[in-house]
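Hi team,

Below is the intake form for Glycosyl hydrolase family 32 from Nonomuraea polychroma. Please confirm the fields before the structure is written into the shared record.

FORM ID: S-0412
PROTEIN: Glycosyl hydrolase family 32
ORGANISM: Nonomuraea polychroma
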Amino acid sequence: MVNRVYAPLAAFDPLAGEVVLAPEKDEEGFWAGAAGVLHDGERFWLTYRRRRPRGAASERGWQCAVAVSDDGVDFTDVWSVHKDELGTPSMERFCLMPADGGGFRLYLSYVDPADNRWRIDALTAEHPSAFDVTRARPVLTAASTGTEGVKDPYVMRAGPVTYLFASYAEPLANPDPLAHATAHSTGDIYNVGATTHPTGLATSLDGESFTWRGSVLPVGTGWDRYQARLNSVVPIPGGGYVGFYDGAASHAENYEERCGVAVSADLFGWTRLSEYGPWVTSPHGSGSVRYLDALILDGHWWLYYEMTRQDGAHELRVLRVRAE
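The structure came back. Fields below:
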């Protein structure tokens, strides 16, 4: 069954997708991406991030937003947040989910200004337009997970359990406080090569109080030996799950990861189908295709992904592929 679901995607060409969001400028370092997609039975909801080059005004991840669409292609913003509202040097992927009892819950990923480590918070509101970041509650932090930081949540429900997959920075081997200070001096430990970055899992019965379960998708031994970030999980008819993840071989590929595929029977253990190389790449520049979020709707896969363009900028695209 895994092969039947996976096979129709084997010819996935990222250039075949429609552009959903373009970057602010047609220049390297300007991005629109880090998509998270929810279909509520009637409409599509999209979370996304905009980034500017380091050194520019409001550098790095300066804005995150929630947008809505009737057709899954043309989106209209209903809410956004600037990084200064969180007092953070950068934000990354957000994730939107229906909240228990009605309304919506938004999971935020940003650098904690208190210690320069990535963290994940949550907000709830009756409608995404009403999110108030002053009411954000901590969900996972470096301290609560025993890591050097945690970010990029992907959240899903299976039965009564809420599963939160997150990229994290493994503890540093060197206990020297100076080594820790150096690793976090830039506010982005992912970009300094001090440790590796697998995917971890946290579980909850209410979507707010989570128990950290540790690594479920470790880094690999080749093209994904530095980072393996699970971005999307889709249930497979007949049982099991297929997941899409970002891989990088070193910190030099941070920000320019490429996409891989893995499968799981229980969400706790994952087997790579792309062990020896990325599953899909862009034909331009670094080859980056990342933050792929997928869903199956009306007999089609809907694939949302961030990709590198010829000019070095990143844009957000969507591709529909018939699901056999």
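SUMMARY LINE: Confidence is low (pLDDT under 50) at residues 1-8.

Thanks, M.
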